[in-house]
Amino acid sequence: MPASPKPGDLAEFLHRIDSRVFHIPPRPESMSALERLLALILQGDGSYAVPAKCVRAFQEHFVNWNELRVARLFEVKDALAAHGIGGVQHRAELAQQYLRRVFGLQNHLDLDWLYDASSERRETLLEALEVCPDHARFVLDLDSLDEEDEDYQGIPISAAMKRMFGRLGWTPNNPKEAVIREMLAPHMEGDSLYPNFISLSLLSFLLPVNKPKNCPKVAAILDLYKHRKTMSDADATELLAGIGFHFPLLHTGYGVKKKVSTKKKAAKKTSKKATKKSTKKAKAKKKVAKKTSKKATKKTSKKS
User: Fold this and answer.
1) What top-level class would CATH report for the domain 25-134?
2) 23-26 — which CB contacts under 8 Å span 24+ positions?
3) Which CATH number fits domain 1-21+151-258: 1.10.1670, 3.40.50, 1.20.120, 1.20.1070?
4) What is the pLDDT of residues 156-199, one digit of tens each?
5) pTM reported for the whole predicted model
């Protein structure tokens, strides 16, 4: 029988594989799909705050996104530099490359249709653009959710997610979506929704579709889950990189022995010295007492 992870154990595992890259805020209603994707593309392996600032800088400097697409490179760089944003050369080139590819694929820059499209159709466009990060598809999956939609069932559960949970032994093979949603419900609330959904989705898409006899990727995930509290940062990073999970871990300090403070060490030394001194004094007193008793015994014997 499959052994479902306890909520606390799964929370610890999700905490361990968390990365600042996954901490994406919900999409503002005023933000178009074109702008959302631009921010994700400019994000790199850092936080979302800087690329969001880039988008605002472009909006202030250019009339529309088409003007940015056809602008001269130095104008794009100046727009970023004016807002104190670093790496202007790379970010300016990447922004124009993205916009030009979108225009080249559909002869316009409107991408809001992505929010009504299927996950598969969104994935097809992202692959065609060739500049989108791996986590972009999962951000768009969440951005597309509409709780007021009559077909709304909750967070999207992909075939890859079901496959991973089954192979990890957390559910029966080919589990129902409702089973996984119920298991993930405590971890998909508030600020935890985007980072936890993105990290699990990325892991699941790294597993092969056809199950090998002994899958090293499944073994690696289970190893990290088992040793989530004790595995060192370096070992965890190497293990995840070995299965294709190349994201800087947010929570570090695992597997490090706690150092005793110098004050505590000094206190221990002082107490040891004091103990030695007290034992020496006690021994000296005992010797004096013995000598005194011997002398008293000799005197009494002589008198008698």
Assistant:
1) mainly alpha
2) 23/47, 23/48, 23/191, 23/194, 23/195, 23/250, 24/48, 24/135, 24/139, 24/194, 24/195, 24/198, 25/194, 26/142, 26/143, 26/193, 26/194
3) 1.10.1670
4) 999 999 999 999 999 998 899 999 999 999 999 999 999 999 99
5) 0.82
